[in-house]
Amino acid sequence: MAATIRGIVLAGGFGTRIRHLLPDVPKPMAPVAGRPFLEWVLMHLSRSAGIDTFLLSTGHLADRIEHHFSAHPLPGLEVQCCPETTPLGTGGGIVHCVHGDTRPPPDFWLVANGDSIVLADLQPLLAAAAAPGHAGALLALRMEDASRFGTVERAPDGTLAGFREKQPGAGLINAGVYLLRHHLIEHFPARRPLSLEHDVFPRLKTDHRIAVVECDAPFIDIGTEASFRHADTFLRENIHRLSPQP
Q1: In the beta sheet, which residues pair with residue 114?
Q2: 99: domain range?
Q3: What CATH code is carried by the domain that includes residue 27?
Q4: Lowest mean pLDDT across 60-64, 75-79, 144-148, 169-173
Q5: Domain total of the chain
Q6: % of the chain at pLDDT higher than 90
Q7: How far apart are alpha carbons 235 and 116 in whole angstroms?
């Protein structure tokens, strides 16, 4: 029997660096190439990983996101919002979504940031996470300039060894896409807010092996004014990768 997978998209950030451009719009809902950016993220994850059910971890202006997907559902996708009343962090948002889902749990949770997109084939990520002895997998991307993101460190066996703070030069960055076994989330620390990179993975990596899957694919985030302004061109140039074209 094929493994079951459900999606979680982290869409609760404040978007501080571009809020002056979109004062009344949650950052993941920023209009890009004719759609809210979050729609592009959901469509790519669905088509590449073959899943149709997503939970959205929402916070800042959460009602705007919920209203949009209620009024404009994406064909073939079930999208449910899980609003935070206080900031929970990336790890806390995942736990909040999982505990708020009343259905039987899936085997895996595909987790992605709602303000970035990497147009990679996710099948290698799925295979790595499902490999014996692995509790999950993280998608990584090699960049000429990793100074804005921080870098991922790999152990000799290809699993996650840690993260390095932002520094100049090339490096392997965390692409913000994870596939985690359901049971791993039960081991997340109880503190809130809870960061995946700073609180969860450093604590779990000793006893739970997380594969690092390197990809070579177009990537963009909308975390800065410059990257947000480039996002429209980026998606229009790469729309063929979102086949079938919407």
Answers
A1: none
A2: 5-138+175-241
A3: 3.90.550.10
A4: 144-148
A5: 1
A6: 84
A7: 11
